[in-house]
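Appendix B. Chain record.
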Amino acid sequence: MTTATYAEKALATRPPLVTRPLLMRFAVTLGASISFYLLLSVVPLYASSAGAGGNAAGLATGALMFATVAGELVTPRLTARYGYRMALAAGLVLLGAPALALTASASLALVTAVCIVRGLGFAITVVAGGAITASLIPAERRGEGLALAGVVSGVPALTALPLGVWLAGRIGAAPVFAAGAGAALAALAALPGLPGKSGGRPAAPLGIAGALRTAALLRPAIAFAATTVAAGIIVTFVPLAVTGSGGVAVLALFAQSAAATVSRYLAGRHGDRHGPARLLVPALVAASLGMLLLALTAVPAGVIAGSLVFGTGFGVAQNASLSLMYERVPASGYDAVSALWNLSYDAGMGVGAAGFGLVAGWTGYPVAFAVIAAAMLTALVPARRDRITAR
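Structure tokens predicted for this chain:
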């Protein structure tokens, strides 16, 4: 679609964006996100308190993310067979109910089992939820609508993550587990307001295997994955790498999250008017520049500036890649797009967090940040190819 066509769409009468079904979808998003982020740091702390130390904490988080990635691969089949409401109901129950079992014991076996089940539940909620969000947003306002959905899911990451740790330190972990369970289960009340399936769904959906074989979907997914690898590095290693006060790391992480949230929304509005294809290349350049600035680990201003610049590129890449992928499939492919995009997100963050430690152990943090910044530029190849093809 050309830039002129996008501009013509923007001048036309635009359909309403926020409808009652979309508000019900946002209620489900809030419930699932609060449940996930409230416990994300508390569960590893709880596991390590049983005496296994950092190994237990790492196993808990690793089990959660592994199960999330596995669940994202199978969710499109679930939604194709049972519909959105049934899949979301299963996901919310699997995400919420097992958290109550943690109040009984901090044994490593129980914690790991709970993390696996909750990871599967979270995967179902994000993949099925992402597909239903796309089906509820008018195509003319897809970028802005996806950006708004990103803000709704991003707020719990900013608030519930630190709140969970703060509450656990003051009132204990058990009430936090109960609150996490309650948030997910309470979201079940919003499901009757959602459609069971997208309108006009054909008998044969695309599927995740088909999405992986589709170059028009794989190119933006690869470009986005380059930024998620860097995001996993930042949230894991910036607190360890910065020199001086821990307040610098806190401010840098907040700056990154805030910049990503704002830029994601602005990118959506811009993409609706001018097309999202032209945004991927500058997003990658900005994200790479931000990583390069983070190499100034001894300079607080450089670390904060790098986090802001990276967050801006990361937010733009989030919206542009997802908008492009939904634009290129019919409604039957929304499940596969949601699965592929979330897979790029979670797998990329996991690879970044796991692999960067090896590089930094050999080169030191400043050089490692610079190496990753240069490596990210290789994603310009599929991003540039995608822009040329889109023209």
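Further analysis of this model is presented in Appendix C.
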